[in-house]
Amino acid sequence: MTDPHNTPEPNTPDLVQEDQKITKDDPRVVSRRWMLMGFGALLNGVVGLAVAVPVVRYLLGPVKRKGAYNSWISLGSLEQFPAGETRLATYENPFNRPWDGETAKTACWVRHTGANKFQVFAINCAHLGCPVRWFPQSSLFMCPCHGGAYYADGSRASGPPERGLFEYAYKVVNSELHIDAGQMPTLSNPASPGQQAGNNNLPVINNSPKGCGSCTG
Amino acid sequence: MHWLKDTYNWLERRIQLEGPVKDAILHPVPKNTASWWYVFGSAAFTLLLLQVVTGILLAIVYVPSGAEAWSSLQILNHQLPLGWFLRAMHGWGSNFMVAVVLIHMAQVFFFGAYKFPRELTWILGVFMLLMTLGMAFTGQVLRFDQDSYWGLGIGASIASRVPLIGAPLVHIMLGGPIIAGATLTRFFALHVFVIPGMLLAFTGLHVWMVLKLGVNEWPMPGRPVNRKTYIKEYHDLAHNDGIPFVPGAFWKDLVFSGAILAAVAVCAAVFGPYGPTGQPDPTIIQTVPKPDFFFLWLYSVLSYLPANLETPFLLIAPVLGIAVLLALPFYAGEGEKSWHRRPVAVMVLALVAVSWGTLTHLATFTPWSPVMNAWSGATVPAKFVHNLSPTERQGAVVFQSKQCRNCHALGGEGGQRGPALDTVATRLTEDQLIRQVVQGGGNMPAYGTSLSPPEVTALVRFLTTLHPVGQPGATDASRADAETNSPPVKAQAH
Q: Domain Cytochrome b/b6 N-terminal region profile: where (chain B) (predicted)?
């Protein structure tokens, strides 16, 4: 390929090939080098493992014990939820980051059954988590994704969901409705993991800037 | 031009790639592989490069922050010169890439190219398909609009169905307890670093093996693959009836890749970028989330599965499907390559293609979903209320106001979750209609508690008028019989 007229510099040697030609060493020296290399590999393995363990812990960071994400949140004054009606309420999720923006908000359906008795349903369909809508005329929650439907009390009416709507534990504190919330409810993560009395000593967080979302309309 | 050659020589003396590159491009391939059927792999590679380049260009502007991702896309779409075009190129590039990768895979399967000695090339390809789909899903997440938000919700709900570790799995996937900024950043890392890195490495190895093992020869019936003789047969074929890979076969790859790039650009220019749809505010529930094109089939499957099959299907079917694909070259590594001698393979391919097409088509009009605004948006056609009694007309009002229309079409308008009711009176008698409305059943909610008795009466009266002119409504034969043949005592009781 190289034309002698156009080559002012000598051919660059292929050093790798040159190397392979000259490695004719004493077998004992070779075996010692292999042993040292094995030691190097072992060292890297040990260090790698030591470095990998913190990485695993870092990656598992979001995993917390059951209920650790939950706290009592105020949905605002009881007056927003007239007896016999089901209204949309929104709150800021208690566990959030400064860069969450509007995704920190969460919505839920509050059904006031009368005499300070409530049912607070997660917005997420029990099938695959899409937001269910309340239709007061037919007293049904309908899901826009795969056609799940629920009755007014949250029980399954039809469609693919295998259970009723997820329900938050609630309590009434100083004429305000509080719910035990904090994580997206799914089949293995209940809306309120500890509905038992033990959870009542959780701190009350009041971060419900807008309160009832459907009251304006 | 002396200096050009001098520069080349100077470089080559240091890089020394000329030899290997020449070996690679001039290696002989069987003449019949220079076919338009063999262009999809290289086209997928070209699209991958397009995605890398357009992806980097988008990353210059995109902000992977829960609070700002959506608005940074708006700025790309509306404020930066040609930002919309780059988004469109990346979005359409992904559609084309998924499509071309699937076609490439179907072609390789159809031509028996996964057989000995190309088993590992196929296996790498299966992983590359999964990564391509992974890129498609994570890319949809980065759009961080309503579809993306609720798509993540669906992903989390699927993850939660995994036995034992479902709960922590959801939190690892979301990066916290809810879909939020932490979710976006981890999907950003997956989409921009992890999956592309692996995909590029796998692609390098995949192409390397294609070069080393040779392009699969055109399958001929009656020329089965035999592990003992294949290598020699292929060698003879490539050397006796072969041509150099470049330019003999490569020119078609080049032309097709150019055409594909042009097609992406035309689609991008004509149809524009994908979304973003509404902002990812979970309190805006007036939304109908839908996945991107390549996951529509899954959306259909999830709607049609019975509740008790859903979790097993979601968790077992993908594992089984991938296992079958990975095992394919081992249980069918020898034998006929030609589709003329592989009827089962042809039928499987046809079945998969037809199922995929049907499910995707269904998902474009989602007959399983209630049409949320049909009750207030679609009017009852005049012909259905013509000449009706006041009670029957009141029933039509109940029909609309109780959202029956969201699931039941009248005159071709309304939901398709339940049957169209244009001729329901020919199928159900009045008694059966009452029972169906009050008790529900067959996937219909019971309306006994949300309808008053007069409302039920009016509604059912209206429904009994829904039969074609000249075709009477359904009646209970035993009732008519009872009226004509009833004993006198009973008749007096009426």
A: 7-219
